[in-house]
């Protein structure tokens, strides 16, 4: 089942700004006219109802957006990099695996057509026109494009369904889904017949709702036993659960309790979802013989139970009507629980100025904007080094170095460039 994949996304780098001069009479040095580089393309996720699984992402691990073009003379700006759009099934979430072990939720594509940026392209570098001043009318410095974001993501598909059918293997979930809707799941008399969740639409009069069969859960499913983790995540978005119990089982009440225990251990919010408990296979003589005992056991436990036959259809119309009424009561309650937190916007902290630290006898400057200028300029020429003085003051580097106690003759390093103060 292709409902969880790991990929790496790389947004496009920004294009470089350029050093250029126009050649006109009476204009000093021809006049600077270097254009800015174009911004790098973003990487987007788009929910697409035509996509049913994540199989397309299995054979490729790295996805890149387009790089921005460099600027040109005559103040021509570079073209923005091409945006990369990854179409995913509706209900897919994206987890950034670099911040925490469990991943940080950065996107939740729960509606058809919804888009979310998962990696932002780098800014384009500024051309030399931005560094003109009254004392420097022919700047020979420009800025390098900013690198695009790189993220290691886990894409996880979680079905969008109103109702989930849960229960032990061979309890009759597939048969109920086939009887109540037009879905045609595989039905057989051995465990784990269904290897992936199946969706169906149930019509009750003029109304309808989406129902999903969640394949068989077993004891220890919350630890990944059986097909546990593969299916438990699909229950999270449902608002109501139909819990089917096999009427032939010697311990019908214990079966219900064990499944609910697995739900609670995986995510406490799942155990709190509204449930309709249903005993299936009442058409079988063995179940009929034990019917009074089953009723008594659930009554003593304080649990209301319904009885159906998924094969003959007995009790199913009434069950679907009750399910729809319960859905209406549940309303549009938000999905809760630790497994699907809300996407939280984390604004970047304001830049507080250049950072300076000392390594041996060298002052190391940390200032991203200045580093981009140095990376985008040939610093071997004396003129370029002289023109660097204004950006040093512009970005607060000079003040930070003086505050750190720098003296003439000391070494300074920013990025890959080192010079004498």
Description of the structure:
- The protein is α/β, with parallel strands linked by helices and 421 residues long.
- It contains 11 helices and 18 strands.
- Strands 10-11-9-12-13-14 form a 6-stranded mixed beta sheet, with helices on both faces. A 5-stranded mixed beta sheet has the order 3-1-8-5-6, with no helix packed on it. Strands 15-16-17-18 form a 4-stranded mixed beta sheet.
- The relative contact order is 0.12.
How many DSSP-defined strands? Answer: 18
- Give the helix proportion (percent range): 10-25%
Q: Please identify, by name, the CATH architecture of the largest domain.
A: 3-Layer(aba) Sandwich
The CATH superfamily of the largest domain is identified as P-loop containing nucleotide triphosphate hydrolases
Number of helices: 11
Please state the average pLDDT score.
Answer: 82
Uncertain segments are 190-195, 218-229, 333-340
Calculate Rg over CA atoms.
32 Å
Please state the structural category: alpha/beta
Q: Looking across the biggest beta sheet, what order are the strands in?
A: 10-11-9-12-13-14
CATH names the topology of the largest domain as Rossmann fold
CATH first level of the largest domain: Alpha Beta
Our estimate of the beta-strand percent is 15-25%
The main pleated sheet reads as:
6 strands, mixed
**Distance between the first and last residues' Cα:** 62 Å
Tally the structural domains: 3
Shape verdict: elongated
The run of helices and strands is EEEEEEEEEHEEHEHHEHHEHEEHHHHEE
């Amino acid at each position: 089942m292709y409902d969880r994949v790991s990929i790496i996304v790389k947004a496009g780098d920004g294009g470089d700004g350029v050093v250029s001069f126009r050649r006109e009479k009476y204009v000093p040095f021809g006049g600077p006219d270097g254009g800015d580089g174009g911004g790098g393309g973003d990487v987007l996720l788009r929910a697409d109802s035509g996509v049913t699984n994540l199989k397309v992402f299995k054979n490729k691990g790295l996805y890149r957006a387009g790089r921005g073009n460099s600027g040109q003379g005559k103040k021509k700006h570079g073209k923005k990099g091409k945006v990369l759009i990854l179409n995913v099934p509706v209900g897919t979430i994206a987890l950034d695996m670099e911040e925490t072990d469990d991943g940080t939720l950065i996107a939740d594509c729960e509606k058809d057509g919804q888009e979310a940026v998962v990696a932002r392209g780098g800014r384009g570098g500024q051309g030399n026109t931005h560094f003109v001043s009254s004392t420097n009318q022919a700047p020979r410095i420009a800025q390098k494009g900013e690198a695009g974001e790189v993220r290691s993501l886990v894409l996880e598909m979680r079905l969008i369904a109103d109702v989930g059918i849960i229960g032990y293997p061979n309890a009759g979930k597939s048969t109920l889904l086939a009887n109540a809707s037009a879905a045609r799941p595989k039905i057989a008399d051995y465990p784990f017949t269904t290897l992936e969740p199946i969706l169906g639409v149930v019509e009750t009069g003029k109304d309808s709702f989406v129902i999903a069969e969640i394949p068989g859960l077993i004891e220890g499913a919350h630890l990944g036993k059986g097909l546990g983790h593969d299916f438990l995540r699909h229950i999270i978005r449902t608002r109501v659960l139909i819990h089917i119990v096999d009427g032939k089982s010697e311990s019908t009440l214990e079966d219900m309790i064990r499944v609910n225990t697995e739900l609670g251990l995986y995510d406490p919010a799942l155990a709190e979802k509204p449930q309709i408990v249903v005993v299936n296979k009442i058409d079988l003589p063995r179940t009929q013989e034990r019917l009074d005992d089953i009723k008594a056991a659930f009554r003593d436990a304080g649990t209301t139970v319904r009885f159906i036959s998924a094969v003959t259809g007995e009790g199913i119309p009434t069950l679907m009507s009750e399910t729809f009424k319960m859905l209406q009561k549940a309303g549009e309650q938000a999905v809760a629980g630790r497994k699907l937190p809300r996407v939280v916007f984390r604004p970047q902290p304001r830049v507080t100025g250049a950072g300076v630290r000392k390594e041996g006898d060298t002052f190391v400057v940390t200032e991203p904007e200045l580093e981009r200028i140095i990376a985008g300029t040939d610093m071997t020429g004396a003129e370029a080094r002289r023109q660097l003085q204004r950006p040093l003051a512009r970005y607060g580097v000079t003040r930070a170095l003086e505050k750190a106690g720098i003296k003439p003759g000391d070494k300074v390093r920013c990025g890959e460039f080192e010079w004498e103060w």
